[in-house]
Amino acid sequence: MFFPKAVLPSLLHLTPAWLRERGLKGVILDLDNTLLPYGEEDLPAAYQAWLEALRGEVPIYLLSNALPERFARVQTKLGLPGHAPALKPWLGFRRALKALGLSPQEVAVVGDQIFTDVLGGNLVGAYTVLVPPLREGEFFYTRFIRMLETPFRRPRGGLG
Ligand SMILES: [Mg+2]
């Protein structure tokens, strides 16, 4: 339950071709430290280009535990469907799947945290993808959680 199905060196490696090869037709995407550096609201240029390429091919749903005001500002800029706070890992994923109109097996759940993104995605049976966090300057609590996550930060059965 805590192991991602795949680990990518960065979000930029999640391409339409990569998704297609795995039969994936949609993406549930984490926001903080996955798409945006923690605390920022503007996409780095490389990520903007990445997002434009991906959204032309597959539907993307933003699922975040961020506070609603911050999420709303970012969502307006990006123009993507989504909701927050999602209370991952327990809530939000079924609503996201329903919005995408896809079955869990057809959807990649992509994020930087094991205990929210990966666990939540695995619980609904989606294809979970772990990416490295964009920025480490976070609350002590998050750093502590990350330390607990360390043994799980690889796919089951070796690197893939
Ligand atoms: Mg995150």
Automatic annotation (TrEMBL):
Highest taxon of the lineage: Bacteria
SUPFAM superfamilies (UniProt xref): HAD-like
InterPro entries named in the record: HAD-like_sf (IPR036412), HAD_sf (IPR023214), PGPP1/Gep4 (IPR010021)
Single GO MF descriptor: phosphatidylglycerophosphatase activity
Alphabetized NCBIfam families for the sequence: YqeG_hyp_ppase
Protein name in UniProt: YqeG family HAD IIIA-type phosphatase
Upper taxonomic lineage: Bacteria, Thermotogati, Deinococcota, Deinococci, Thermales
